[in-house]
Amino acid sequence: MAQGSTRFEHLEKSIDNYIIEQQNKNTRAKTTKDVKILIELLREKHELRNPEDIEAEELIKYLCKFILSVKQKDGKDFETSSLRGMFSSLNRHLKECKYPVSVIEHIAFERKRKCLEAKHKQLKKEGKGNRPNAAEAQAMMRSIFSKKKPPGNFKRRSIDKHNLALQFTAFWPTRM
């Protein structure tokens, strides 16, 4: 091709910067926030390295401490799905930093997974599951089919075959 061809555009940004710019802004913000929380724990434990600079065996110990001790700013425990989301964020960050293993899938992080399962069981016992308000939805569904007053500020509506499926999916908790 002749010099000055317009077939290929001149790249002004690096490929990595281009990929980051195309990511969902909310995903990027959550990843940044979750990594900052882990770094906060590392600094509290007098660890000056960033997570991507810590060997897997040592990082496992910090991640287990993170699972067992992390709280929301108001001191409440996170929901179990929020903890799993945090680990997805941390895994995403480490993957971007070319960390050699996945903190979610690699066998070296089995202890972290067991810690997360134990915390999940504890939180479920305390009533913090993935859907803590599922009981309210079930009560609403029961009230639709009975003559009882529905809970909260819900209003009773007539049910016919056309809107039954819509109401059923709106109020009945589904299993994931």
pLDDT < 50 stretches: none
Shape: elongated
Major sheet attributes: none
Secondary structure: number of strands: 0
Count of the domains: 2
Work out the helix count: 7
Give me the strand/helix succession.
HHHHHHH
Cα distance, first to last residue?
Answer: 55 Å
Question: What does this protein structure show overall?
Answer:
- 54% of the residues lie in helices and 0% in strands.
- It contains 7 helices and no strands.
- The chain has helices at residues 15-22, 25-44, 56-69, 80-96, 110-125, 134-145, 164-171.
- α2 packs across α4.
- The longest helix has 20 residues, at 25-44.
- The radius of gyration is 24 Å and the shape is elongated.
- The protein starts with 14 loop residues before the first helix and ends in a 5-residue tail after the last helix.
Q: What descriptors fit this protein?
A:
176 residues, mainly alpha, 2 domains, 7 helices, elongated
Could you outline the blueprint of secondary structure elements for this entry?
Elements: H1 15-22, H2 25-44, H3 56-69, H4 80-96, H5 110-125, H6 134-145, H7 164-171
Helix pairs in contact: 2-4, 3-5
Short description:
This protein is mainly α and 176 residues long. The protein contains 7 helices and no strands.
